[in-house]
Design a protein that fits this description.
single chain; 255 residues; mainly beta; outer membrane lipoprotein receptor (LolB), chain A; 4 helices; 13 strands; disordered C terminus
Length: 255
Amino acid sequence: MVILTAPALCHAGVVVDEQEIISQPGANNITRNRTVMIEGDKQKSILDNGKRTIITDLGKGTMTVMDGSRKTYVEVPFPPKSGPSGAMDKGAPSTIIFKKTGAHQNIIGYSCDVYSGSGTAGRNTASVTGCFSDSVPGATDYNNFQHEMADKVKGTPMANTSENPPGVPLTLSTTITFGQVPPGLPAERAAKLKELLARNQFVTSTTLTRITASSLPAASFQVPPGYRKQQPRPNVGGASTGGSTKTPSAQKVPK
């Protein structure tokens, strides 16, 4: 994996605006906007105009999740040591093998190469199609962060044991099929199970709408003044399920 080699002050940040559509079994599609800001070893993801914001600081080894409606935030280790991400299929990292299809597209004025991939995500089956470009503004900084994050999560369930395509994904469609067909199953039973599993798919389609290269101030990756710090919920942190309904103790960031 490639590690960042230039001092942090030499980095020009990158801001990516995306639209994400989530299709899930038995429910209406969810459409939401996301802005991803990257500067050096820090990333900030803003969902739904700030209703939810996630700051990942690889240098500190922390992930901060902010609730814009309640003006609260939670800070947890990164990679997570417990909770949904840390506990998911422990010991079963993702293995997605990407191949260049030879096809090309032009999206919002940028040329990109189409890749397809398939494999496993934990104990589930995954298929991915995306169009990647290394000529968009900020592509180098984007790639550097992705490489450093991949290095950070090595040996954890968040790791992908294969290399991702180079460049920024201008479109990305990921289909997760919950469950797998066990090896050695008779052909007829395997076909029926495969058909059943196909009805239980989770599809996420992301399209880049704008990308700009811009140096980002340190304050972009800090909790805004006035936010209150809360302890992770027991069922999120993995310490226990259930627990008191008492409001967690909060610590307010000075204005």
